[in-house]
Amino acid sequence: KAGVTQTPRYLIKTRGQQVTLSCSPISGHRSVSWYQQTPGQGLQFLFEYFSETQRNKGNFPGRFSGRQFSNSRSEMNVSTLELGDSALYLCASSLDPGELFFGEGSRLTVL
Amino acid sequence: AQSVTQPDIHITVSEGASLELRCNYSYGATPYLFWYVQSPGQGLQLLLKYFSGDTLVQGIKGFEAEFKRSQSSFNLRKPSVHWSDAAEYFCAVVGGNYQLIWGAGTKLIIKP
Predict the structure, then answer these.
(1) Mean pLDDT of residues grouped by 10 in chain A (111 residues)?
(2) Which of B25, B35, B68, B87 has its CA 20 to 30 A from that of B52?
(3) Is the alpha carbon torsion for B99, B103, B104, B108 positive or negative?
(4) How near does any CA of chain A get to the CA of B44, in Å?
(5) CA-to-CA distance for B51 and B32, rounded, in angstroms?
(6) What is the spatial distance between Cα B78 and Cα B66, in angstroms, rounded to a whole number?
(7) Cβ neighbours of residue A88 under 8 Å, at least 6 residues apart?
(8) Where are the beta strands (DSSP E) in chain A?
(9) Whose CA is closest to A68, among A43, A93, A87?
(10) CA B75, B77, B83: angle at the middle one, nearest 5?
(11) pLDDT digit string (tens) for B81-105?
């Protein structure tokens, strides 16, 4: 079974731009979660989608958004990028509550 | 409110020594508990999980954890650590609406 695939793996953007990250979950997994990880703040939950509906949301500004498609693939978007958005963005899919399978992440650098 | 506490930010252990990483949770119902590991530059990987039944659970890479309801703890142990165990370890519990509540993580440093 293929694992969770995140694209792109690395990207560089400038302040004010927007970015879209993609996540393909493990086949059959209906839940997809997104996390932001930085050295200063650690692992922070962004949101979770289940069957195309946002089921849970963390404490991030509205510049961070996401969606899930009918095939369970998910995208997250960050608009009006700030320097502080530089981070590793992790996606995870799951079949059972709490049992997450993570991708390798998308490393975003904002200049 | 549901929460997970990992009191140790860093732990240093000599290679071959035993390891115990502490985790305390706050959750009213029977918890679903997890330990995850993140090696440098990698995503997170599930080490083990507790749903119910035997309170001592075995995981991958020789790790085990013991659920103690009376202490609200789910400590991770390994009898003999290897240099490849150097990583960050996260404890987590499933909270309301199936949301996973995470501890802040413990960074394990292995001394040669």
Answers:
(1) 92 98 96 94 93 95 97 97 97 94 96 97
(2) B87
(3) negative
(4) 6
(5) 5
(6) 11
(7) A36, A37, A38, A105, A106, A107, A108
(8) 5-7, 10-13, 19-24, 31-38, 42-50, 53-57, 64-68, 74-78, 87-94, 100-102, 106-110
(9) A93
(10) 130
(11) 999 999 999 999 998 888 899 999 9
Q: How far apart are CA A33 and CA B45, in angstroms?
A: 14
Is A55's CB within 8 Å of B98's CB? yes
Spatial distance between the Cα atoms of B21 and B76, rounded to a whole number of angstroms: 5
Residues of chain B with pLDDT under 70: none
The owner of tokens 């890479």 is B61
Contact yes or no for B43 and A102 at CB 8 A: yes
C-beta separation of A95 from A29 below 8 A? yes
Note whether B36 and B45 are within 8 A (CB).
yes
A35's CB contacts (< 8 A; 6+ apart) are A43, A44, A45, A46, A89, A90, A91, A92
User: Which residue carries 């309801």 as its tokens?
Assistant: B69
Identify the residue whose tokens are 């252990």.
B13
